[in-house]
Automatic annotation (TrEMBL):
PANTHER family found in the cross-reference section: THYMIDINE PHOSPHORYLASE (PTHR10515)
SMART domains xref list: PYNP_C
Protein name: thymidine phosphorylase
Domain Pyrimidine nucleoside phosphorylase C-terminal: 358-431
Family membership: Belongs to the thymidine/pyrimidine-nucleoside phosphorylase family.
Domain of life of the organism encoding this protein: Bacteria
Length: 446
């Protein structure tokens, strides 16, 4: 795909200060101005201090739906755009804003492929404390997350799915802007999130997108209304770019499932592909899976979508597709067949409940940070301790006795455990009365 030519009238380049002032005053950018901003970022012509001022102006003043759609398209066209039109099957991708214990992509990609859908999944940058799906898959010996675009397309043609690291050739303007947003505390800007996510996902060749927008203490979106606004922004811009889009707003005020870690979460994903595992994860996999098969046109009705998802889990075809994808990317599938082969921690100890009561609230981010300190997340050199993490997490509404474990901690290093314990202890709040657990799925936006 090539950029569309601008109208014949001559575009006079404005100063960056003028554009910053224009947005600061809440005015809308024209298509030409947005293209000029993206070109200037891509070419390195706009100084960092003015990029920072621009990002902050957008953060406070926002962008209209039309501006956001233009921004998304310009960032998408700043690099390679993969053409998958020669593949006859529907091409749908799934994106999550990132959550603690969220291993749904590890289940949904093979599940969708088993349903006859092509899933061109490239993993981007998650929150600093979250563990990406690719980090979890790297617990499988030999698994390679890096892949060139030609090899990526070839794997999609042969198998129907791939889970790889984001290619630097796709949406390079977004990569520069995202790096700046991290440094300037402008990550939560809704139009910039929308542009960032959709520019990369649509550059992968997806015809449609199912989005899981998480809100709560384990997400960078802490406000429910903001999460709903983001879901609406993404689906609206997706539609304006002629792509089918559905978003679910889901709760992230406690970890998803029973585990947080790398190998521990991968083992739980394998459980889910066998029709087992925690109820909350089963519910979310079912609902997101139904959205994917309906968006792809594989299933027409809600009942048909539910049956399709359940069938591919029950008959084992989804699990076989996970093995195919892992094998194609160099991984040892014997670990999928026998999850007990994954490394286990030298030590396991409980986090005792300080008193009797009900689990009233859990701060998922605190648990994630503690797990990261144990070594589950990549360190500065990219090393990951695949064995560490937490399991058997007591959820909101569970009654516990004093001394009963709130979770089991898997660790290899006593010094790291001491640091992590502070986060784990701070994560739980107990109360004498049973609270009402929050609904997992808050809203559907289509």
């Amino acid at each position: 795909m090539v950029r569309k030519t601008l109208s014949s009238r001559r575009f006079i380049k404005p100063s960056y200060a003028y554009l910053i002032e224009k947005k600061r005053e809440g005015q809308e950018f024209t298509k030409e101005e947005i293209r000029y901003i993206i070109d200037s970022i891509l070419d390195g012509e706009m100084p960092d201090f003015q990029m920072a001022a621009m990002a902050m102006a957008i953060f406070f003043q926002g962008m209209s739906a039309q501006e956001t759609a233009i921004l998304t398209e310009e960032m998408m066209l700043s690099g390679e755009v993969i053409d998958l039109s020669h593949i006859a099957k529907p091409k749908i991708d799934k994106y999550s804003t990132g959550g603690v214990g969220d291993k749904t992509s590890l289940v949904l990609v093979p599940l969708a492929v088993a349903s006859g859908i092509v899933i061109p999944m490239m993993g981007g940058i998650d929150q600093d404390f979250a563990i990406s799906s690719l980090d979890k898959l790297s617990a499988v010996p030999g698994f390679k997350a890096d892949m060139g675009i030609d090899a990526f397309i070839e794997q999609l043609e042969k198998i129907g799915g791939a889970m790889v690291r984001q290619s630097a050739e796709l949406a390079p303007a977004d990569a520069k802007l995202y790096d700046l947003r991290k440094k300037t505390a402008t990550i939560p800007s809704l139009p910039l999130i929308t542009g960032s996510v959709l520019s990369k996902k649509l550059a992968e060749g997806a015809e449609g997108l199912v989005i899981d927008v998480k809100w709560g203490n384990g997400s960078f979106i802490r406000d429910l209304e903001q999460a709903k606004q983001l879901a609406r922004s993404m689906t609206r811009v997706g539609r304006s770019m002629k792509r089918r889009c559905v978003a679910l707003v889901t709760d992230m005020n406690q970890p998803l499932g029973d585990t947080v870690g790398t190998a521990l979460e991968l083992k739980e994903a394998i459980q889910l592909l066998k029709g087992e595992g925690p109820e909350d994860l089963q519910e979310l996999v079912l609902k997101l899976g139904m959205e994917i098969v309906r968006l792809a046109g594989v299933a027409g009705s809600t009942l048909s979508a539910k049956q399709t998802v359940q069938r591919h889990i029950e008959d084992g075809t989804a699990l076989e597709k996970l093995k195919e994808i892992v094998a194609a990317q160099g991984g040892d599938t014997s670990y999928i067949d026998d999850p007990e082969k994954f490394p286990t921690a030298k030590h396991i100890r409980k986090l005792p409940a300080p008193k009797r009561g009900y689990v009233h609230t859990i701060n998922a981010a605190q648990i994630a940070k503690g797990v990261h300190l144990l070594g589950a997340g990549p360190d500065e050199d990219g090393n990951i301790d695949y064995a560490v993490g937490v399991s058997e997490i007591k959820k909101v509404g569970t009654q516990v006795k004093q001394g009963e474990p709130l979770m089991m901690i898997h660790y290899n290093d006593e010094a790291k455990l001491e640091q992590a314990l502070e986060y784990f202890k701070a994560a739980y709040r107990l109360a004498p009365k049973r609270p009402t657990p929050p609904p997992l799925i808050v809203e559907r936006v289509a």
